[in-house]
Design brief:
Elements: E1 11-15, E2 20-24, E3 28-33, E4 41-43, E5 54-59, E6 65-70, E7 77-83, E8 86-93, E9 101-121, E10 132-138, E11 141-148, E12 151-156, E13 161-163, E14 166-174, E15 178-187, H1 198-214, H2 223-235, E16 267-268, H3 269-281, H4 285-298, E17 309-310, E18 321-322, E19 336-337, H5 348-362, H6 371-385, H7 404-424, H8 430-447, E20 449-450, E21 455-456, H9 471-474, H10 483-495, E22 497-498, E23 501-502, H11 522-534, H12 538-550, E24 561-563, E25 568-570, H13 576-594
Antiparallel strand pairs: 1-2, 2-3, 3-4, 3-5, 5-9, 6-7, 7-8, 8-9, 9-14, 9-15, 10-11, 11-12, 12-15, 13-14, 16-17, 18-19, 20-21, 22-23, 24-25
Helix pairs in contact: 2-13, 3-4, 3-5, 3-13, 5-7, 6-7, 7-8, 11-12, 11-13, 12-13
């Protein structure tokens, strides 16, 4: 069968902070991995066809229309279906209840009568394992049990009838009628668990999400988009371990039919550190403390073994392999599981981690017994190795380079170490760190800045620019309105802007070692919003922000990139980096419009000790 053509933006997610399911606008659950984000899928139609597993629920009336939205401040998805015969709602959620892996789809009649059809095809192990399926009795009816290897699910609701290697049921709801469909995953060596109390689960889940959302502070412009983005970041944070996955999916393509398809269901130190900064800014200290504990566990040991990314529990081996039996979303292959980038050297992660931990100190979080010693160990390793090339923030699979952004993050690592000693009384060789910080800064100005064009460059010896350089003011390397930064922004607008949005870099340079092209990277354009706001171009910031926010789908989600020609999202979804940079951009606009530069400590020349000299 041909690969599905359901656009990425047609998917909503529901989740329980352990895993997440993707549900299309047409009511088909096409992606589900249980019990964790990174487990093999049991519904994999997102990356192939219905044969790879799905669970659809929709009216039998093919002319039915639907409107959907999350219940405010939650990940409870409400879809209202209208047919010629009536109206019904479907509430879909993953209960925050007893740490069990459940999905609930509650159908309730609102008016008239609506007939629904349920179809389910369970395929464990990314579509490769056809389960043994049987019916078992339970109080109130029969349940379908599917088992393959270590995995089993029990599906309760209307009685399902076999049709080939799938099952289906048809049922009708009138006004006030309620029909509950519940899927529960469990280890196959155990007995099927007892049925879920759906009423209790709905009440507790709604309260859990709304209580969390209500803690957000301070208010920002684009309030609804900011709150939904914060909720996405929480949904991608594993409840038990504190690990923050980059996205809930694997192998959604950056370019239709292309090979740039990666597994993002892991914890990047960079993305997680940036997420924690955003959450702390909005009052979520508990999540920051939990992430710091995750970090200390994950990177404990020899600093030489520090990786750019880990599994949700801190796992180190993330071996990458392909699934040739899956045809890919829209035919984009290969479909990959695991991510070989875990083996890469990327110096910028040292800066990101040090920045995040310094921000935690500024927020009043006490150093643990191991936190500062671990940071000192990382710095000791960085001192000995920072001059080597790396593969940079974009994880190129081409030749290692001396990336200017990576060098700036090395500068930030030593800078935050110095400030830890000077501002917080921590112990360390501060004079040596200051010397190294200044040496890195001087090298960047000498080798990473093109004086003729007045712009920083992607890597030493290259003429091109890189959107990651927009982070230089964010980390305090120079002010947003510094002439060198303004020249860099101008070069980006000339070289990287397409239809008003920024590419990460020019792929035709060959720097990444991959074929094909990609679309504008949403996080880069949000960084540009932040830069505009911080450098006084507030009107430009608002205009770009309004356009970027319009790219969210009907339930407020963003993937990684945006195809402006076809007006469709591209890449893995929902993307933590897109949502965290949306929040930062909104905060930057708020700070600029209020004149509250305390919220932007490294811009508009306010951090004089960072502006040690003018190298123009």
């Amino acid at each position: 069968m041909p690969a599905p053509t359901t656009p990425i933006e047609d998917y909503a997610i529901i989740g329980d902070c352990h895993t997440a399911a993707l549900i299309s606008r047409g009511g088909s659950m096409d992606w589900l991995c249980m019990p964790r984000f990174d487990a093999p899928s049991l519904f994999g139609a997102l990356l192939d066809s219905a044969e790879a597993g799905h669970w659809s629920l929709a009216p039998t009336d093919e002319a039915a229309t639907v409107q959907r939205a999350y219940l405010p401040g939650t990940f409870v998805l409400r879809s209202v279906w209208r047919t010629a015969g009536g109206e019904a709602e479907v509430l879909e959620f993953m209960p925050m209840l007893d740490r069990r892996a459940n999905i609930v789809r509650r159908v309730r009649g609102l008016s008239g009568t609506v007939e629904f059809r349920e179809r389910i095809r369970i395929r464990f192990a990314y579509g490769e394992a056809v389960p043994w399926v049987r019916q078992i009795p339970y109080h109130g009816g029969n349940a379908l049990v599917a088992t393959a290897g270590p995995d089993a699910v029990v599906v309760r609701g209307p009685r399902l009838t076999a049709s080939g290697l799938a099952h289906s049921a048809t049922f009708a709801v009138g006004e006030g009628d309620t029909v509950d469909l519940v899927l529960t995953w469990y280890p196959s060596h155990r007995e099927p668990p007892a049925p879920v109390d759906v009423d209790k689960g709905l009440e507790r889940t709604t309260r859990w999400w709304t209580d969390w959302a209500a803690r957000s502070e301070p208010p920002s412009p684009f309030d609804e988009a900011v709150q939904r983005s914060l909720l996405v970041l929480r949904a991608l944070t594993h409840e038990d371990t504190g690990g923050i996955v980059a996205a809930a999916t694997t192998s959604l393509p950056e370019s239709a039919g292309g090979e740039r398809n990666w597994d993002y269901r892991y914890v990047w130190l960079r993305d997680a550190a940036l997420t924690i900064e955003v959450l702390m800014t909005h009052g979520y200290r508990e999540e920051a403390e939990k992430w710091r504990t995750w970090l200390l566990r994950a990177i404990a040991g020899d600093p030489a073994d520090v990786q750019i990314m880990y599994g949700i529990g801190g796992e180190r081996r993330l071996a990458e392999y392909e699934l040739p039996h899956l045809s890919g979303h829209g035919g984009a292959v290969p479909v990959r599981v695991g991510n070989a980038a875990y083996l890469q050297r990327q110096w910028d992660i040292f800066g990101e981690v040090m920045i995040a931990l310094h921000s935690a100190r500024k927020a009043g979080m006490d150093e643990s017994r191991f936190s500062w010693p671990l940071q000192r160990a990382l710095l000791g390793f960085l001192e000995q190795n920072w001059e080597q090339p790396d593969r940079g923030i974009w994880e190129i699979r081409g030749q290692e380079q001396h990336f200017t952004h990576s060098r700036a993050m090395v500068w930030a690592a030593f800078d935050r170490a110095v400030r830890g000693v000077r501002e917080f009384g921590l112990d360390g060789p501060v004079e040596r760190w200051e010397t190294l910080r200044d040496r890195v800064r001087d090298e960047i100005y000498e080798r990473g800045f093109d004086t003729e064009r007045n712009t920083f460059v992607q890597h030493y010896g290259a003429p091109g620019v890189d959107a990651a350089l927009l982070q230089l003011p964010q980390i305090g390397f120079l002010a947003a309105d510094d002439p060198k930064m303004l020249g860099t922004v101008k070069a980006m607008e000339e070289e990287l802007m397409t239809d008003g949005l920024l590419l990460r870099y020019r792929t035709e340079s060959g720097v990444d070692g991959l074929s094909g092209t990609e679309h504008p990277f949403l996080a880069c354009s949000f960084w540009l919003v932040e830069q505009y706001a911080a450098s006084g171009r507030v009107d430009d910031a608002r205009r770009l922000m309004e356009r970027l926010v319009s790219f969210r789908n009907d339930v407020g989600l963003l993937s990684e990139e945006y195809d402006t020609g076809n007006r469709t999202q591209m890449g893995n979804t929902p993307q933590a980096l897109s949502h965290l940079t949306l929040v930062r951009a909104a905060d930057a606009i708020a700070a600029a419009e209020r004149g509250n530069e305390d919220r932007l400590p490294f811009v508009r020349g306010k951090d004089e000790d960072r502006q040690q000299d003018d190298r123009s």
